[in-house]
Each structure stands twice: as C-alpha cells, then as structure tokens.
Amino acid sequence: SSIDVGVSSMTTSPSSSSNNNNAAMEVTAQSDSVPSPPPAAMNNIDVTAHHPHDDGDVAMDDTTNNSSAPPTQPNSSNSVNDDADVQMSPRTEESVNPTENLTTMSNDLESSSAPLEQSAIPAASNPPKEDGGERKDPEEVSLDDSMEEEHLADEEMNSVKLDTFSSLPTAEQRRRDDNHLDDTLDKLQHSISEAILAFRKEEQGNESMTKEACGTNNDGSAYVKLRDAAVEAYQTLVEYGSLLDLSLDIAPLNKRRCEKLEKIGRDLWKIIRTNPDLFNDVISDVTTNTFDIAAASSMMEQKRQRAIAGGYIRTIAVRLIFLQYIDTRCSKGCPPTLHDRRDGNKAQTPSPKELVFGLKVLSKGGRAILQHGKTARDSHDALSLAISCFNVLSGMAQSNGEAANEMKDVLLDEAFDVYSALPNAAALFEKEHHADMSTNEDDASTQADNSSVDWPTIVLKHLDAAKNFIDEHCNESLNDEGKSALKYAALQRFLPQLARLCLKQGSHFAEIGMNDHAMKALNIDLTATNSCLANIKEEKGRTEKKNEAQMLQNLEADIVVISIESFYLLSTVLQSLGEKQDALGCLDQVEIYMNEKHERDEELHGNTMSDLGSGNDFVFSEDAIGPAKDKADIKNRSQTALTKSRHIHSREKAILSSRKIQLLNDNPSKEDERCIDDQLSSMVDLVSKKEESTLVETSVEKDEILKLTLQTIRSVHVERNMSGIYRGGAALDPYRLMFDKLSKSHQLRPFVVLDKLSAILSIAFGVRQRKLEHEYESIDQEALILADQYLSSFKRDNALTTDTTLFVDTNNSMKTELLNVAKEQFALAVSLYHSWDVYEICAKWASMLKDIHETSKVSPEHGEDPILAEVLSVLAHSLSMIGSHAEGVKWAREAYEKHKCVNNLATLFHCAARHEHADTLLEFDNALNELSTSDHDDILEHFPRFSNSCVENEAEGGGELLLGVQERWLILQLRSKNLGTCLDKKTVCESPSGHSVLDLLCAYLENFEHVSSSQKDRQKTESMCEYLGHIVDGVLRLLQVCRDRKQEKLTGRRKKKNTSKENSEGSIEFDSIWNDTATQKLLGDRSQCVFVSEALWNIGNQLMTASVLDDATYDSRALAADLFAASHDFILMSEEEEGTRLSKLDYDVKYEPERFAVPSFNDASATAASDISSEFSAQCLLLSAAVTVDYLESSGRDQSSANSLLRRTLHRLAQSQQEFESNCRKKAQVSKMIALLTMRCILGLGEDSFAFQTCNDGLCATLLKLHINDAVASDEEFLILKQVKSMSDSALQKRMIHTDRVLTKLCSDMLQNSGVFVVGGISLGDLQRKMIQSSVSVEEAIGVFQEIDDAVKKAGTGKDGTSYSAGDFAWFTVEAHNRGVQLSTVGDETHAKTFHTFALNFADFSTNEVRCYKQQMMNAFTKSVQKLDFPKSMSF
C-alpha cells in the first residue's frame, strides 16, 4: 500500500486562527483501498497509525482538554499495545482538521501515472527573502492596523512586566528574531519537500533497476540540503529561546505566535510519521558483494544524512510542541529543562501521554544526532530534555494513580537508553573543545566559552544519574518475584551496560591523566558489578530451571570479566597516585575472582564426569556442551573445555603476576623484592607446567605465557642491575630461576639466553645514557661472553650434532624462529655499538652476526643478500676505523658485490679513502655508472657522506680525492632534471643533496685552487681542467635558465642604473633573480655568485702563470681564458634582474659562432653596454682575449680550431669594448689594447679581405690616433709603430697582400706624423719604397712620391737620420724616372711629366752615380713637356 505524504503549510491563516488555539496533530497514513475520511469527520476520529519500519515513533490523537481535571484515559480500542504507539492529545476543546492543508501535496505525490518532477513540489508559503530584508507572513498581511497595534502593544506591555530581565529584547528585535526563525523553518519545509520527492524517485527507480545499479540514480544532494536546513533550523530555534524562557506567562510572545509555532511542530511530526523510511535512523549495512564499493559508500552516506536530518527534525518538532512546557534558556553544557508546575492554576503540565511522546521522540532524535552527527551540544540537549520528560513522568507516578505508574514502568528501557547515551554525548564536548581551541587560538571569547564546559564533571554526573536510576527503579524489583521482567532487565541489561559505560569513561579519564575522575567512574562501575554479582548469586540459589541457570552463569562470567578489567584499571590509577597498597589490594581482588572462576570450572567438570553415569544434563561456564550424543563424546568435549580453561587460567595468572611485579618493582623495598621473587617463581612454574597441556604452542612467538614471563624477568633484571650499578649494591639475577627450571638440552633454553642478552644490551644502553663510564667495559664484556657462549653451541662447518642446543631437528619450526631471534638480537647489538662509535666491539658483534648468517645453512630467500651485505658493510666500516684498512676494504668490496646500493658504495669509498687506495676514484666512477638513474637524486643524497670521508681521511682536510668527489657531485647535480624544472617554475623545494649549486661550486673552486698549485702530473692536471670547464659552463647555463624566466620581449634597451645617493637609499627596487626563494634554496645567493667570479679570476691568473713556467707540464692558458670570460658572466649575473632584456653581447656563455661580433672603431656605430656591466667585467673579457691570442700564437693548433677561438676572441673584445665605454674613465690605454688585439686576431684568421675591411673601417685610423697620442706622452717610444710593423710583416708572410699594403701605409703615416725617418730599424724610405712597389695604380704611386717630396721640403736633407738617405733618394730618382719613361712610351705624358718632375727634384740629393744621369732626366722631362705643348693632332 502507498503512503500519503503530507507537507502542510507552516503558517496559520487568519480565518482559522481563532479556532486553532491548540491545533491537533494526527497521522494520515492510509492504504489505497481505504479512502480518506472527509475533513469534517476527522475532528472526532481517534487515529493511530504505526509503520512497521518505525519502531521508535509515536502517534498522537484527539482528546478533550481540561487543565483542572486529570488527563482522560483512552478507551479500550485506542489503548497502547506497543512501546512505539503512544497516543497523545492536545489540551483543547476545539480542533481543526489536521489534513486540511495536506490535500494539494498528497494528490501530487500519490499520482503514479505522471512522472515525478521538481515542479510537483509546492512552493513554500513564505520563501525567505534573499536580500535579507524584513520578512512578512503572507497570511499576516491581511491583519488590519488595529491588530498590528494590539500585537505591538502586547509585546511592549510584556517588556514592562519583565523588569527582572535586563537584557529583554525590544519589540523590534523580537520581530527580527521571529522573521529569522520563520525563514529557517520555511527553508526546512522546502528541503523536506525536495527530499521526499527525491526519495520517491529513488524508490520508483530502484524497482525497475537491477540490484547492481541500485543506489546510483541519486547523488544525495537533496539529503545533504535537508540535513543542513534541519541543523540551521534547530540552531536558530535554540538561539531564539536561549536568552529567555519562552514558556513563561510574561515571555515576549503573544498567544497567537505560540499557537503558530506549536502548529509548525505538529505539522513536522505528521511528516515524520507519514515518511518513516525517509527519516529512518537505523542504518543497515549495504552488502558489498551486490554493489560496487562506490555505490555502497554513497548509499550509506545518504542514509546517514537522512538519519541526522531526522534526528534534528524530531527534536525541532518536540521543542515546538512543548514550547509552553520547556525552559528554553540554555547554553553549552547547560541543557534546557521541562517545567513541572502541578500546583499552579496558570502554569500547565504535560499529560502523561505527552511526556511519553516527548521521551520517545527526543530519545530517538538525540541518539541519532549522537550516533551519526557526533555533535555534542545538540545531542546532549535533546537527551537531557528526554530525561526531563521521564523525571516529570516519574514524579507524576507518585500522585497521579495507576495509569501513570504503569506507563512509567513500560518506559524504563527507553529511559535507560537515554541515561546510557548521555555520558557519551557529554564526552563529545572534549573533542569539540580541542577542535575549537586549535582553530580559534586568537579568539579569547571562544576560549572562554569552551573552557567553561566542565565535561568530565558532566560525564560523572550522568553516570551517577544512571546509577541512581537503577537504584530507584530496579532495586525493588530485584527482590520482588512479581516483577521478574524488570528484574532480569536490570541484571542482564542495566547493570552490565552501566558497568561497561563506566569502564569506558574511566579508561579515557585514566588515559588523559584525570585520575580523580577515573576513580569516581570506576567506583560506580564496581558498585554496579558488585550489585549484579550479588543478585546473580541469589538468583542462582533460587532458580531450578536449566536455561535460567545457564543464562545466569554466562552473565556472571561476563560481569566477572568486566570486574577484572575494572580492578586492573583501578590498580593502574592508584599506582599513578602513589597508593601502592591499595593497588595491590585491587590485584588481590582480581586473583580472588580468577580463583573462584577456576574453582567453578573444576567443579563443573567434576560434576559433568559424575553425571555421565546418571545421564543428567549439565552446563559448562565457557562453552555449552550441547545435546549429549554418547558418553565418550561428552567426556572428550568436557576434557577439552577443562584443558582450555586451565590454559586460560594459567595465562591470566601470568598476567596478574606480571602486573604485581610491575607494581612492586616501582622503588621496591626488601619485602617487595621477596614478593617479586615469589611471583617470578610462580610465573616460571607456569612455563614449565604448560608443556603438560595439550594446547602447547609450537611457536615461541605465540606462547603468551613464555613471552610475558621473559618480558617480566627482563624488566626486573634491568631495573635491579641499573639500581645496583647506580647505588653501588649487588644485583640479583632473576634469569637464574629460568635456568634452574630448564635443562641444558631444553629447547627453550636458547631463547632464554637470547633474552638475557637483550637485557644486558638494555643495561649497556642505560649506563651510557646515565654516563656511568666506569661501567661500560664490564657490561660490554659480559654481553660478548654471553654471545660467544651462545655461538659455541653449534658447529660452523658440518651438520648440527644431536646434542646441540640450537638445532635439534632441521624440520623443527623452532629452528627458524630461534635463528630469527638470534639475528635480531645480534643486529641490535651491532646497531647500538655502531651508533656509540665503539668500533672494536662493534666489529666483534658484526663478525658474529656474519657467522650466524653464513652458518644458518638456510636456502637464501629474497632479501637475504642485502641483509648480509649490510652486516658486512658495518663490519668493514668498523675494521677500517680501528686501523685494519686492508680488511675493511676487502669486506666493503664484498658487501658491495652482494648488494649494489649507494649505502654500500659509501662504505667502500670510506674504507678505500682511509686505505689511500690509488684506484679509489676509478672504482668510484664505475660504481656511479652502475647506480646512475635518470634523475640522480638518490645518489646525490649520499654525496655529503663521500665528501666527509675525504675531509676526515685526507691530509689537510682535503685534496685530490675530495676534488674528484666534488667534480662528480657537481656534474650529477647539474644533470638533475628536477633541479632545472624547479628553477624554471620557481618551485620551492630542497636540493637533493641538501646543498645549493653555488655552495658546492664555491667549495670546489677553493679546493681546486689549493690542489692545482701543487699538481705536477700532466694527465691529472688536464683532467682537472677539463672537469672545471664543464662545471663552470653547466652552472652558467643553469643561471641563464633563471635569468630567462618569464622574459619579456622589449624593443628598447635597458638604461644604466643610476648610482646616485637617492637611489642607493632604496628609492628604486629591482627584481633580482636572487630574491626568489626557489633560487636561493636550489642555486644559492648573490654573495656566492660574486665569490665564484672572484675565485675564477684568481684561478685563471694561477693557471696562466703556471703555464709559462719552465717546468710547466700542461699549457692551460686556453682554460684560463675561458675562466676569465666565465668570471665576467658570473659578475654580471650577480646583478641580474628577472625578465629584462639585455643586448646580444652581454654574456659570453650565449656566444653563437655564426653571429660573432667585431670591435667597432667607428664612433657613429658604437653602442652602449648593458646597465649591469662594470669595469671588472670588461677587464675579465679583455684579459681573456689577450690570453687567448698569446696562447694561439704559440700553441701550434690547427687552423680550424684556432679560427674558432679567434672569432670568439673578437666577440669578447667587442663586448669588452662596449663595457669599457660605459664604465672606464681611462679609455686611451684600453682602446690601444683592444685595437692591437683586434689586429692580431684578424691577422690570425688569415682572411685578407676581412682584415682589409676591418682596417679600413676605422682600425687603422684608431691606431694612428693612438700612435700620435703615445708619441706625445711617451717621448718617442713608438711601441704601436713597432707592433704594427711586425703585424705588417706577418701579413706579408701569410700572403695577405691587401692587409700588408694597409699596414705599411699605416706605418708610413705614423712616421710622417712623428716627423722622423728612422725608428728602431724602421725606415720611412724603406716603407715608401715598399708602398711604391706594391702600388696598384699610377695615382697611388704619385701619392707616395708626393709624400716623399713634401717630407723633403719640410725636413730638408739632413744626414743625421732626420731625412732620407742618399741611397733612398737615388732609388726614388731612378724609380720616378723609369716610371715617367714607361708612361711616356704609352702616351701618358701628363703622369710622365709628374714622375720626371719628382726624379729631377730627388736627383740633386742622390748619389754621384745617379746624378750623372741628370741631363738625361732633364731631356726626358723636356720631351714630355713638348709633347704636352704640341698635341698629336698638329704634328706631321
């Protein structure tokens, strides 16, 4: 049958407000076959409906109301037959139809032909305003002005009456509170409608779907919304009434407002009763084999949300219905209460049925909130209000007759459930307190509010209330034969449940250190168990029924278990409080319980054996024997049960003895020591007697009695030895008790030996913690002697003999277990002594552990080799540290071969470094190649160990070996993919090795400078330099990654930073790449970058100096040049900003061969350098270029590689030139160096056209200008002239004709500008001869002769080197005459005349031999002139 769903309006219409003072609430659950009664007939019909799935809800019906008369009893047809169906009537004479507002929604939801859609949900009567404005009830809008004024007048009058409440809200404040409450209730109504619709859709969908698909057609959002709305509505309602008691006559609520809220509560209750499956708080597990895990989890979560919502809605409904009975003033830890005003005329008291209704519904709602919502205050308030209903009902039972008394007796189970839930609800205040304190540390008000909740006191109050409940309502029934049901409920349920609850809370109090509260909780617990046991004993004496006797016996066993646990816990609490004797008394009581239980089991077994002949039935305490089949079967089963019982008793005795020893061993007296020995003796007896039982464990690990005994003996042995050592007294050996009981061939004896070894190691650890150095040696030697005795019990070569105490049978499982225990203890010793740096003893333990592994003769399993390798590694390290270097290297190499891992490699490297092995680095490289992975992070983590080994073992704290480790460390770190990725994305993370790149580079460069100064081996030097070049280049490229992050494409050039005082004070900030956290962690900081630059400068100078020495083994000038250039890049990078544009010449590392630059000597084409350059950076590049040029001129490298270096050198010169232009004040000297180096570079390239072009683009002009300046400043040094002349000769040798001509001309110009004719063997005449000979045109030759003529006119014909020599003049005369004759021959009389003129001018200064031909020269000149005067056209 389908169920009608009623979602009524939560407001009251004006037309029915006068007839609805106390609206009736009824159930409208009906079947399809029974039509609903007409609305008019419903007023006088008493309807109770109960859904089979809702065992905890109650129904309410109509009865008459008379406040002065006792409540009317229902007729026989409406009597209560079940705890779940309780009828309740509102106290009014007039009623309205409860289904009056349900018609529309019921018709919509009952329609099965049309699909269910969201539009089927009726709109709320008053949807909340989204803009937060004041809310008006649509049904209140019709009120006329007089009614509104009357409403306000009533509230103002009430505010005058409440003179005792200083915080009484005004009418305006109350109106806002009313609107807020109405909004949340309307929101709850909307959520309920959507949840009902979603639930119906889910039900209809699941009927047509397979089981596997069930639960996947609803996402549960409607249920989450329902839960949130219910929680919000409840909290609003609590806040609404927290400040004032809304049930008082003077409360600021008019009568109509109270009626409205009461009707809302009744309507909510109708919805709950008509939709029991939706608001079901019993969550059943979903079968996982039918559904997938995700679907099952989703369904369980939806059920939980519905259960939480149902709990809150039930609580809201009751609080609204009981509004006139509840003192709503409450706070955290102070719940609301129910008034009990039976002696006043105006005050009303709930009827018994209403109290039953409140108790059951609040109990169900509060427990749902507690179980599923885990909300402390909400569950605590609801459950406290339920108890308040029961207390009022209980008080009414004393004066209200039999009906109330009978109803009270039926509800005892429900009331006790509430009592038992309240302590758990109060305990939740602790978790909420810690959560609030952690999230609101700065909120003082929150801390004050949380600290005011004394949750331990509240928990104890509720535990005491539960005890009082049992004393008040159940003690009488325990002695009343007529109340057997209540009596057995107390024995089977109330008292055991109270005991368990007290034990749970007491354990928690003891765990958090609240010993006083734990004592109180345990006292209640033990009172309950004592009462229960006493009553069980009485009942066992009276009963004659077998089933009852067995039930009482099992119940007694359960209570005894609870009592034993409680006494154990109480003894622990008393021990912490220093009450040792009382704690021992608790343990004595435990022993009494255990002995009584054991005696009962023995007695039952004896009775069973005696009853076998008579055929009587019997029972047993632990397990029911069941129906008798035959005597033999019964006997066997009884004997098995007895054996098991004895074993359990022995185990419990061992636990009790261990607990007593633990208690007595706390600062024991002499009497306590004797008691400890007695208890130890009893425990040892249990171990020896246990073997007689058939339940002896085949594994020592599973033997709880043996493990507990050894553990106790070990603790006593350690405590006695430490006390004797510390106080100087003698220590008794408790292990003697075990050795006396176990023969030398006993299979457990080796385990005891190993356990004593463990105790001695614990003592060794203790004396080192207390720094009792005089005791170290004796304890260590005792442990070694015991270990050696243990190892001597078996042979190392052949199979074990029959009398060995270690391995009697290879198939015995004890063998493997003992072997594992031995390995564990010896490994512990190795670990301890290795951590204490006691290497000599550690080596002995490691050697013994190695023997155990090797002689166990167990087939190696997975993981055996790594373990043995680790042992060998520790052995090798210990041997190396005590001076046995060769042995250490041997075992370290074997350890690495057995298991190739980084740890074993570190040990091998350490041993080899201490042994000063020549092939250490070679072996290290081979191992790295085997272990290398794609990211190298696992290896990098261990490099600090390698470095420390070098520092500790090499002379002067480091050397070649350390340098080799640093080289490989840096190479691997630069190859790490994670490093580059993190820098590029600015991911803040730690470096794989724990050190930044620049940290490592700084240390490496310092060590390199130290090692290279004394290195004489050419091969090693070459390898060191090669590593250095790769490392520096790799770091620079990593820096470039940081510099190019998020680089903007700018068209303009960065301007030079202003270094004025204003900017130096921080008015302008630059986004340096070193400000990034990721860069600082992974790469380093700016100061380290500057340090690297300076270190590279120093190393470059050192290498350059070493290369020119007589005993130099390796020419490292090429590397020095690269280091100078790298120094330039590092110093620039130290000032670099992120995302800013630089020129293409800024970084040497960014050099591209196809786009190399050449220094510019044309002022028009000069460009400025970057703003972060400096004079130091320019010097680095200039020095790099100079070293490269010198190196190439003397190295004899092939032309291809030399040309590549020369182009890069020209690029560096161009970059240096730009930076000097921006930063250097003395530019003349720098310009001379750059010009000369440029000239040498272009000559070294050997490209005549390129050199000719460069010279003509301003280089020659620059050199001439520099020569002129030098001639004035240096008093005729003429250094530039000499170098240019040398380069001219070099160009001639390389057949660079054009370049040679340009340079020769430059030399000539320099001499002429200096006014001298001969300098250092350089003659102006010789230069001009060469110029004339190499001239390629008449005009060029004439130009040279004209220069000669001008020089003669200017200087004269001195004979002291201030003019040309006679030989020069002779050569010039002859050359000019011959050229004139040649031109005349070809008809060029104009130029011929010019040459003849020069010849005549120079002839007078020539030699005598040439002057003899002066007349011939004159004739040639005359002839040329005549030809010019008489053109050919006029001649015959």
Describe the structure.
The protein is an all-alpha fold. It is built from 52 helices and four strands. The longest helix has 37 residues, at 171-207. The model is unreliable at 1-166, 210-217, 342-347, 442-451, 617-628, 795-811, 858-863 and 1047-1070 (pLDDT under 50).
Features:
single chain, 1436 residues, mainly alpha, two-stranded antiparallel sheet, two-stranded antiparallel ribbon, 52 helices, 65% helix, elongated, disordered N terminus
Radius of gyration: 54 Å
* Overall number of strands: 4
Question: What order do the strands of the largest sheet run in, or round the barrel if closed?
Answer: 1-2
Characterize the overall form.
Answer: elongated
Low-confidence stretches: 1-166, 210-217, 342-347, 442-451, 617-628, 795-811, 858-863, 1047-1070
Beta-strand level of the residues, as a percent range? Answer: under 5%
Q: What is the straight-line distance between the termini?
A: 152 Å
Helix content: 55-70%
How does the SSE layout of this entry go?
Blueprint: H1 14-17, H2 103-110, H3 145-161, H4 171-207, H5 221-242, H6 255-274, H7 293-321, E1 326-327, E2 337-338, H8 352-373, H9 376-397, H10 402-410, H11 412-439, H12 444-451, H13 455-473, H14 475-478, H15 484-511, H16 515-542, H17 546-576, H18 580-614, H19 631-664, H20 670-690, H21 704-727, H22 735-741, H23 749-769, H24 776-791, H25 813-835, H26 839-855, H27 864-881, H28 885-898, H29 902-915, H30 920-931, H31 937-940, H32 943-953, H33 960-975, H34 977-985, H35 997-1012, H36 1018-1043, H37 1061-1067, H38 1077-1082, H39 1086-1107, H40 1117-1133, H41 1175-1195, H42 1199-1223, H43 1227-1245, H44 1248-1273, H45 1279-1293, H46 1297-1314, E3 1318-1319, E4 1322-1323, H47 1324-1333, H48 1338-1355, H49 1366-1385, H50 1389-1403, H51 1408-1411, H52 1414-1429
